[in-house]
Amino acid sequence: MSAATTRSRTPDRLCAEAVDIARSAAEEAAAPGVVGEHVDMVVEGDRVVTHLFECKDFGYRGWRWAVTVARASRAKYVTLDEVVLLPGPDSLLAPEWVPWSERLRPGDLGPGDLLPTESDDLRLEPGFSGEDGPAPNSPVSAEMAELVEAEDAEITAGPVGDLPVVPSRGSIASVAEELGMRRARVLSRYGLHVAADRWEDSFGAKTPMAQAAPATCVSCGFLCSIGGSLGQAFGVCANEFSPADGRVVSLSYGCGGHSEAAVMPTPPRPAEPVIDETVVDVLALRPESDAGSVAADATLDDLGHS
Q1: 130: left (phi over 0), alpha (psi -120 to 50) or beta
Q2: Which of 111, 63, 108 is nearest to 84 (CA)?
Q3: How do beta strands 48-55 and 63-70 pair?
Q4: Which of 54, 134, 115 is nearest to 90 (CA)?
Q5: Other beta carbons less than 10 A from residue 79's beta carbon
Q6: DSSP state of 15
Q7: How far apart are CA 44 and CA 41, in angstroms?
Q8: 38-42, 57-61, 273-277 — which is least confidently predicted?
Q9: What is the 3-state secondary structure (H, E, C) of 119-169?
Q10: Residues 19-36, buried b or exposed e (16+ Cβ, 10 A)?
Q11: Within 13 Å of residue 147, how many CA atoms lie on the same side as its CB?
């Protein structure tokens, strides 16, 4: 070990005794009452010492005020180097910085916000925009002619003016537009898988609602089909009473609002009246003379009337 290394680990006496100078510098840089007790001293080099003071600020628990003092060679006075606030071994630190593109979560995008998409986004791939298509009056290439012959199609060669119908540049573009691919970029295979995993987690077979459902969405009348490859596993719910109304749901998802799981029973019809025509009930049109409680030939005296 060299003499310089040994000398650098030994604190300078004057710098080590300059605790009051360091405290005054820390109190001047900090708010009143924030600088606490002197907790440690670190030797930075020859005649360079850092004094550490406790920080009493509630927002910086465990942090320490670090005041570095130094002394020139053969000088009798200690000078101030710097004052900083440094985290201690048990200090409360802010989480590691994360770029905004990684902090963004579903639902953060509001009205008027713009969310740029990177040019090399793995979720997207180039689509068919028609810019690379041949012009209407361009001759048919050898590759296209071979392809047409292999597919047993008919094609008319010659100038455009001699053709009965002017070929449109969009013979391929119209098909691409019908398939929803006439865009600068379309979903890549990775983008399809990411979307499918996200939808499966929200409204898939493993959700508690689907586990308790009487049937799956594949047999529900409220399921609206979607196009593309995702339509083989997903659809859109159109039941206003379902928790997934207007959402993309997995065909293996289900809820209690299934169209065929609990059909409303038909109200019972009253029974037809039963008429027994074998028995005749005789009903008198006027009351009989002896039908009452008093005989017809009884006198008033017998009844006790005066």
Answers
A1: left
A2: 63
A3: antiparallel
A4: 54
A5: 12
A6: H
A7: 10
A8: 273-277
A9: CCCCCEEECCCCCCCCCCCCCCCHHHHHHHHHCCCCCCCCCHHHCCCCCCC
A10: bebbbebbbeebeeebbe
A11: 5
Angstrom distances, CA of residue 263 to CA of 237, 244, 253? 18, 20, 19
Structure tokens at 166: 């002017």
DSSP category for residue 245:
B
Highest mean pLDDT among 92-101, 134-143, 195-204, 274-283 belongs to 195-204
Distance CA 16, CA 201 (A): 62
- Residue burial 101-127, b: 16+ Cβ < 10 Å; e: rest: eeeeeeeeeeeeeeeeeeeeeebbeeb
Express each pLDDT in 65-103 by its tens digit: 999 999 998 888 999 999 999 998 888 777 888 887 788
H/E run at residue 45: strand 35-45
From CA 145, how far away is CA 151, in angstroms rounded? 10
- Any idea what DSSP says for residue 230? G
Comparing CA positions, the residue from 57, 14, 25, 55 lying closest to residue 38 is 55
**Residue with token string 């740029």:** 116
Identity of the amino acid at 162: D
Task: Identify the DSSP state of 274.
Answer: P
Average pLDDT over residues 157-166: 52
pTM of this structure:
0.44
Say which residue the tokens 């310089």 belong to.
4
- Give the length of the chain: 306
